Amino acid sequence: MTRVIRINGEPVEPAGDATIVETEPGVWSVLTGGMSCEARVEGDEIVIGEYRFRYEIDDPRQWKRSQGSGGAHGKISITAPMPGRIVRVLAAAGELVVAGQGIVVIEAMKMQNELKAPRDGRVTAIEVREDDRVNAGAILATIE
Amino acid sequence: MFPLFPSVLIANRGEIALRIIRTLREMGIRSVAVYSDADRAALHVRKADEAAHIGPAPSSESYLNIERILDAARHHKVTAIHPGYGFLSENARFAQACKDAGFIFIGPSPESIALMGSKTGARRVAKAGGAPIVPGTEEGLASSAEAAAFAREAGFPVMLKAVAGGGGKGMRRVDRESDLGSAFDSASSEAQRAFGDGRIYVEKLIENARHIEIQVLGDQHGNLVHLGERECSVQRRHQKVIEESPSPLVARMPGMRERMGEAALHAARAAGYFNAGTVEFLADNSGSFYFLEMNTRLQVEHPVTELVTGLDLVRLQIEIAAGARLPFTQEQIARRGAAIECRIYAEDPASNFFPSPGRIMQLAEPSGPGIRLDSGIYPGWTIPVDYDPMLAKLIAWSGTRDHAIDRMLRALGEYHIGGIKSNIPLFRTILNDSAFRAGDLDTGYLDRLLQNPATPSPPPPALAAIAALVASELNRKPAGATAGGFTSTSRWVAQGREDLLR
Q1: Best interface-test mutation with B: which of A23, A110, A130 has the largest number of B CBs within 10 A?
Q2: If you average pLDDT over every residue of chain B, what do you get?
């Protein structure tokens, strides 16, 4: 069994005939085929110049990276993309909504942002009230 | 030589506080920073000579709290207070309170702020001075019904604006009457939160206009000059994104700089203005322009003017506040080359520009010929969610606009802020856009550009192979050392480990 490295979901053979040095924490200098390149590691992404590469490694010797389970059959959660304060709730539980309809308005860093329904459906729950403070990732509403 | 101040308190935070600290240090003046609970570890606190805690994170209880700031000024025995931009910088009550408490306010008089800081008051002054103004109401409105009455007469679209406004807060474009009520309410509540004043007025929207502003500078002896224009037409949500000088339009219109400069000086003179200020205009491609408003403070984009004139506006502000005369006449002001500024925000252009607070895990900052970076961040710092998401301003200067744009693109390539999302990719898109390079701009330019995003070119396979190589190296490292950033890096990555895995 060998490792398979996936870049943006596709298996990719690592560059050969290369020298690689971690010059600063998370910053790698790569020399290959006469080219000098700097790569920066950010979470599950590798940034080279203006390109971002998501990487995964299928390694039989290690735990498989758990896949996100969001958006499973029928039910979709609207989560806070950042910590902030709820300034307005625009939909009620039980309401039928269409894709793109505003559900809640969150304020963070002095900006108000309307979070919209990702698709048509029925609001099954609104988890927040106006003036609530929420953390990034908090579930604000669910749509079925 | 006039007596300078032994010490100055900076009633602000972030990059502008640092910008002011740097000039104070050059002048041998002691700097006193203020900070909220959220900013104990902020860079401006680290770099100041002294620092005072002024309250909890919400700005209403700290950076907008006049009493707390004056207490800090008394405790640190400062002579003068610099308000920066935003927060209390255009608050006449604050300027007056500084004066009453015996501190010199580094800015215009409270009377000038009250007159020009109120957008409606400034319109009346400009109109009286004979400057063309955009049609609109002369006063704040009691209700959205009054806005509707104006809009029916003048025709949609209209622009709702905060009387106390600035920085795009409390502004809404309204295209039809049915949207007026909710737009009025949300603009008013946004203005209330941002400025402590929810009053709203309405203007006819001038479509396809360019935003061009004139920097003015006056001393307390009646001398007043202008330092030329900045064009700020690249905007999103009424927030400036890129500013530059010269304006591509003004540069090709003979005499336009002089005419706008004169109009700006008339408005400033009518307000008895001294210190640094900016008169904003809307202009069209025929060279006509309309007075928009006056900002009675240092602008975010002041470095653009500094680079093309060679002046230090903060130093001049301090000297003027200390009673000095302007050290030059209008004729002695020389302009050279072109400068352009990008406002670097913690927001994700790929995801509807959502704010992206969080911890800065990596930071590589650009430098080299013609590059200036006014920044307020450092690696390891967590960006608080309580304030504006502007992190830094990157400014490029060169002999021509084309070279300055190339230089900016080069600097953006050197700039990396890891751990959060920033709007750096947006600037690559704009600076490579042919309309931008041709100087073909108006305030709707950026919205149009974003509506038709170019399909991103697929990454070269060679780079994907390099990414795979890096991923493979990461996989060889012991678990827990792969995150990038602050984990300690072990260079003794076991050579044999890979063999075991193959």
Answers
A1: A110
A2: 91
Domain count for chain B = 3
A window 69-98, beta carbon within 8 A of B: 81-84
Q: Do both B93 and B141 map to the same domain?
A: no
Structure token pair of residue B135: 């049609």
Pairing label, strands A27-32, A96-97 = unpaired
Residue with more model confidence, A87 or B480: A87
User: Which two tokens mark A117?
Assistant: 């329904």
Q: What is the extent of the structural domain holding A92?
A: 76-143
Pairing of β B50-55 and β B30-36: parallel
* Within a domain: B60: yes
- What ipTM goes with this model? 0.76
Alpha carbon dihedral B203, B207, B208, B211, in 10-degree steps, equals: 0
* pLDDT tens column, B300-354: 999 999 999 999 999 999 999 999 999 999 999 999 999 999 999 999 998 889 8
Catalytic residues of B: 297
The answer, for A22 touching chain B at a CB cutoff of 8 Å, is yes
CA-based nearest residue in chain A for residue B499: A2
Contacts of B499 (CB under 8 A, 6+ apart): none
Tens-digit pLDDT profile for residues B14-72: 999 999 999 999 999 999 999 999 999 999 999 999 999 999 999 999 999 999 999 99
Q: By residue range, what is the domain housing residue B486? A: 462-501
CA distance A103 to A91: 5
Q: What percent of chain B has pLDDT over 90?
A: 79
d(CA B206, CA B431): 25
pTM metric for this prediction: 0.83
Give domain status of residue A113, yes or no: yes
Q: Do B466 and A48 touch (CB under 8 A)?
A: yes
